[in-house]
Structure formats: structure tokens, C-alpha cells
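README: folding subset

This subset contains proteins for which both the sequence and a predicted C-alpha cell string are available. Records are stored as plain text. Below is the entry for Uma2 family endonuclease (196 residues), shown exactly as it appears on disk.
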Amino acid sequence: MTVATQQRLTLSEYLTYDDGTNTRYELVDGVLVEMGNEAKINTLIAVFLIQVLIQLGLEAYRIGIKQKIQVASLHASARDPDLIIHSSESAAVGDDASEFCLKLHHPNPMIVIEIASPGGESTDNYQRDYVQKPQEYATRSIPEYWIIDPERAVVKVGTLTNGSYQFQNFTGNSQINSPAFPQLELTATRVLNAGR
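--- output ---
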């Protein structure tokens, strides 16, 4: 759903935009596009992953929630991923900013994680998570991109290779393989069920 504003917004205006609601927006060619509400399972998965990563020894300050990433794309100016796993360099960016956004010239995070919303291949949700975002994050050279898809019961881990992501699919009791976290001992089922 597109939101009518008086004029196209710049990235700076978007980062400080507040309409008095808790609505999530992404900026598409200067226009606010409503992201819709998260399914309960999506937020449970995000919290579960945070817990797992902290138990692995990842410092909490390197986990980004509700932090935006600027992209160079025809589809969006900035994305609002479910989780960002920062590199030590990207974690040091913008500590004094009231609204965080990793700009194009900033260091990249290690991993961006999207928890897919329901919808078939022709839906905006699918096109955004499976087509647009992989291209946008690859253009930024982010080393890993995860798509966690509860509806399709799959965890896809994409590793950046020659400018695009090569995805490995994990389903059922297959153990997830993450180059950034080789010590990770986690199955797709545990992630998709948020540890339950």
C-alpha cells in the first residue's frame, strides 16, 4: 500500500518521518510504501535468532533490529530488514544518529535476515524478498543474505559469490550452514518453530 505524501521524500526525510503510528514503511523512489503488520511467527523467529546468536557469543550491539539499509535500486531507496548482523565496522556507524540507516558509503554488515511474509510468487511480498532484495543486498556486497520462510518451511542461506547470492536451502532437521557462524548448531525446524 502506497501512502500519499505532499511530495517525494529524500532519504533524510524518510529517516525522520513520523505519522504518529507504528506503521513500518520502506522508501520506494521517494514514496512511502507501507510494509504491513508482521505475523506473530515472524517476530518469534527474530527473537529466537537473537537469543541463539547471543548464546554463540555475538555481542548484542552487533544485532540490528529496526535499522535501515540504503540500497541502490529501482525498487527502493532503503530497506528495513528483520535482522541485521553487523560487522564490527558497520556496528560502529551512527551511534549518535536518532534514526539509524547504513548508507551506501558505510561499511556493510555480515548478514541481513528477512523473515518472509506469506504470498505466492506473483505477490509484492515474494517479489520483494526473493527477487529485489537479493539483488539489492548483493549490489552492496553484503556477504550473507538469509530468507526465512515459514509458509514454505525453508531457511535459505545465500552466500555472495561473483556478485550474486548462491542459496542453500535448509528444511526439516537439516542443520543450517552459515559461513559467518560455522559453529552454529541449529536446524531449519528449530528456526521455523522459533525454538519451540
